[in-house]
Amino acid sequence: MRILIAAAGSRGDVDPYTGLGAALRAAGHEVALATTEPFAPLVRAAGLEFRGLPADSRRHGDVGDRRELMRTASAFLAGLGQGFADAVDEGTDLLLLSTTTAPLGWHLAEATGTPSLGVYLQPTAPTGDFPPVVTGARSLGRLGNRAMGRFALHMADRISEEGVARLRDRLGLAPLAASAMRRRQERAQWPVLHGCSTALVPAPSDWRPGLDVVGNWWPHVAPDARLPADLEDFLGAGPPPVLIGFGSMAAGEGERLGDLAVRALRRAGLRGVLQGGSAGLTADGGPDVLTVGDLPHALLFPRLAAVVHHAGAGTSAAALRAGIPAVAVPVAADQPFWARRLAALGAAPDPVPFGALTAEALADSLGRVVRREGYARAARAAARHMRTEEAAARVLRAVEGIARRR
Predict the structure, then answer these.
(1) I need a surface site. Which of 62, 90, 185, 326 has the fewest CB within 10 A?
(2) What is the pLDDT of residues 261-291, one digit of tens each?
(3) Does domain 2-216+389-405 have CATH number 3.40.50.2300?
(4) Domains 2-216+389-405 and 229-386 share a fold
(5) Is the pTM of the predicted complex or chain greater than 0.85?
């Protein structure tokens, strides 16, 4: 089959699909990944065809301002939809849609008659088991969680409304509200495979048929990939260090965060690796601190004592996969959800909210996760569970089922 995967957002919203796409390609399918231009090298390195989407995936504005976030997200989807149709050519046999692209992809599937399948990185369907992942709220009980879940979907429909209207007009389709299309998909029990581990999110018992949690899809790593020589030297020069990084968060705060990180490491008596990320994290920490750029988690994390991160879905899972504990410093969106999941699992202490981050708080949490064996033991147990999950194979079976019905 000719498969088009569509994903957009930050790197963590795109990179897992490089591994999924490579697995589908290895099974004999032709695979293209449609995403924004900054991620073209990741797509091509995985041996996939790149198709560009014309949207700015960078984050703007104050991450604590929810109205600004909604305006930014709405503009992001409106821009995305204007180019999405160009990425779907006449030979596309199947659309694989991420959480971000599904609200637009449904309409493309309608216009072209192309089958589609959800491949989400976050659980979005309402459930009594937990509150919506994007609200940052604590559990409100089963009834409250479900009510909040429905409200979160309502807000998501509002955000996508402008993009949907523009896209349907371009496709020559009659107007249809975003909420109406969502209800149509729900009634049809449109299938969604969720690319997260049941170690963190067991499939809720109150979900409708067609919603499944299958395990993580991991970013593609070339078989001959190696860590840089200076990092290898650093890793070999002492006990396993701690990695501190904030991924696509905290743009422009690198100097402040770098200084804070060095002070925390010294206070805790630990060696550290600072990962630049969008923050531009850097510091002169002497021989016990090294600053690095983007590196494959799969190569670096097993060599570490712990990870301090923003609790993005991918980084949270990568730490567990490596069997190492974490200190979660959530910033926005779904990050508080994953941070609390790590703590509930026992693989991390209580999260340190980004707004409350100090060198003292970070040093205290680092001291606990590195020196109390229970955290590492919980992470290793999760790693063993994750090795039993066959996430890409589950998608392949779903794809082949769709192929047989065509």
Answers:
(1) 90
(2) 999 999 999 999 998 877 777 777 688 999 9
(3) no
(4) yes
(5) yes
